Amino acid sequence: MSGRAGRVGGSRFLYEPFDVNAARIETHERVTEERWINLERRLHHIEIALDRVERRMWLAATGLAGFLAAEVALRFLTMTQ
Predict the structure, then answer these.
(1) C-alpha angle 17/22/24, rounded to 5°?
(2) In which domain of life is the source organism classified (predicted)?
(3) Which is nearest to 2 in space by CA: 11, 13, 15?
(4) Where are the alpha helices (DSSP H) in 1-81?
(5) What pLDDT is attached to residue 6?
(6) pTM score over 0.90
(7) Per-position b or e across 44-77, b if 16+ CB within 10 A of its CB
């Protein structure tokens, strides 16, 4: 009776060879994929924050332009009276 052929049952890890390099590569690929997904998620949040900042800057610039236009109009009206 040879050793492997006659055995039935038990863990396959006891009888099959374990390829360490393939397991390392597979693990590295999974870790890299998870990191990439998290990086994309963080970049998406940064883009959203930048859009909000841009809207606030445009609102501030528009408000300042409106304020200056009102000041010019008010000075023009008080100067003509």
Answers:
(1) 115
(2) Bacteria
(3) 15
(4) 20-80
(5) 55
(6) no
(7) eeeeeeeeeeeeeeeeeeeeeeeeeeeeeeeeee
